[in-house]
Amino acid sequence: MPAQYDAIIVGGGHNGLTTAAYLGRSGLKTLVLERRDVLGGAAVSEHPWPGYTVSTLSYVLSLMPPEVIRELELHRHGLTLYPLAADYYVPFPDGSHLLLTKNPGQAKAEIGKFSRKDADAWPVFSEYLAAIARIVRPLLLMTPPAVGAKSPADLLELARFAWQLKGLDVKSTSDFVKVMTLSVAELLDEWFESSQVKAARCVSGAIGTYGGPYTPGTAYVLLHHYIGEVDGQMAEWAFVRGGTGAVSQAIAEDAREHGAEIRTGARVGRILVEDSRSVGVALVDGTELRSRAVVSNAHPKITFCELVDSSQLPSDFVRAIERYKSRSGTVKVNLALGELPRFDGLESEDSMTAARSFIQLCDSMEYLEHAFDDAKYGQPSAAPYSDGVIPTVVDDSLAPSGKQLMSCFTQYVPASWSQAPHRDELEAYADRVVDGYSRFAPNLKSAVEHRQVLGPYDMEQEYGLVGGNIMHGDLTLDQLFSWRPVAGYADYRTPIKNLYLCGSGTHPGGGISGINGRNASREILKDLKRRR
Ligand SMILES: Cc1cc2nc3c(=O)[nH]c(=O)nc-3n(C[C@H](O)[C@H](O)[C@H](O)COP(=O)(O)OP(=O)(O)OC[C@H]3O[C@@H](n4cnc5c(N)ncnc54)[C@H](O)[C@@H]3O)c2cc1C
Questions:
Q1: Which whole-number Å values give the CA distances from 99 to 102, 242, 411, in the listed order?
Q2: Those residues with Cβ within 8 angstroms of residue 154's Cβ, 6 or more apart along the chain or in another chain
Q3: 332 lines ligand 1 (CB under 6 A)
Q4: Section 458-470 average pLDDT
Q5: Residue located nearest, by CA, to atom 50 of ligand 1
Q6: 342 CA to centre of ligand 1 in angstroms
Q7: What homologous superfamily is domain 5-44+243-325+471-531 in, according to CATH?
Q8: Which ranges in 52-151 belong to alpha helices (H)?
Q9: Mean pLDDT confidence for 431-442
Q10: ipTM over 0.95
Q11: Ligand 1 neighbourhood includes 333 CB (under 6 angstroms)
């Protein structure tokens, strides 16, 4: 049967849609097949309660580079961003708090409440991270070379990669290695003395990670969350009008405008392989669709352990995919509130700034480490960590008039909870999250009118996030860059000809960035043009 499409994309997450948009812009006939009834994958807005639009999973944007926003004309397609007013609001049990904005004078005064030394170190540390981020950023947009491969083409790619690093000197090389290998706690201990400042900073190293702040490699996770920008401001985060699903919708709009066909409620059951080449897909209802290329936006484990017959793959590749780490202790708690939480001890102006920032339930690095220790030894955190935001303070499209939404990204439950619903225990855990915030905002508990609690099992079963991992796989050094998802296959190609990956299980990992889709489409176009 002749190919009906140039490319079929399995999955309508934002990276699948991005791939479709770029391929469509190059004139390819593209079909996106999304299993769920709604597009977006983990970048999705849904309506769990009448009148509310909730960013069910992801909740803020930063990692999408200006290149993707500009090239796909996302602002023209309706993307509207509201930057957060402050980086962190962290209340402490003794009644003090840290409210950190990007204003250098404000940050200095605020940190100075706890340590003058740290107040001086803060901007230097921020510049230190920014300098490393400037080295890493261009690497995100490139296809990783196959380190160790010896073909002339691979060696040329390696040489190009080395050229990208020409700006490194002895000092910056050492900084780079530290950030790639240390725990976030070790890194922060080198820079700061105040436990409050370290509490504020350490969470970015553990977010979405099945590890605590003392776990080696978490300094890189901090950097991963520092690399983004909003409107040219590095490390800025923003709410998306209409929730993060609006990002996916804007990308889908661009893809459609460039000829892509997008179907929802279309679950792929099998990727068809003939003579070691993928030739299309079969939906679970048996419909077969043929294409010149198949691109999987699904998690690597779904792609290779469920959709492809493993006998079609080299056995060492199958083993590597089986060993690919995709663990999580994340629970998302979404709250509909009858009124804004009122945090003790904040003046009204600060109160509005705090409401428009990341509201952290984590008063020290030890708090976060204990929260992880519980999960590591098989129990949900007795005192969970939470990163809360209240998007309704800037976006009036999300809730009925006078009502608020609070999105709480929380950790940790045991990774094994991805195997079973643990419904009652999750509700008890969510009670502890609400109780934790209520210690600082006593009106919160009675303000809760609706609550949605999603653990690793829900994330895997409903959203295809294997193990509940928010990034399609742990962001550890062995699973980054040329080693993501598997050494030798970091260039978006797979052992099966014409089958590609474009999801967060590829370089540069997870987050709403669209980079994986942009990079993958570049490689697919190279191959398809060659074969015309
Ligand atoms: C709780 C949570 C909070 C997060 N917060 C943030 C945040 O605030 N900011 C941020 O930048 N990132 C955040 N992230 C991470 C980010 O949302 C994800 O890394 C990113 O959205 C993944 O995009 P993707 O397109 O690569 O994959 P996905 O969004 O997972 O898309 C894959 C798609 O493939 C579909 N699919 C799977 N199998 C099939 C099949 N057989 N047939 C058809 N379709 C299939 C799935 O249904 C899904 O729609 C968060 C993630 C989670 C879970």
A1: 10, 26, 22
A2: 145, 146
A3: yes
A4: 98
A5: 58
A6: 33
A7: FAD/NAD(P)-binding domain (3.50.50.60)
A8: 66-71, 104-112, 116-140
A9: 97
A10: yes
A11: no
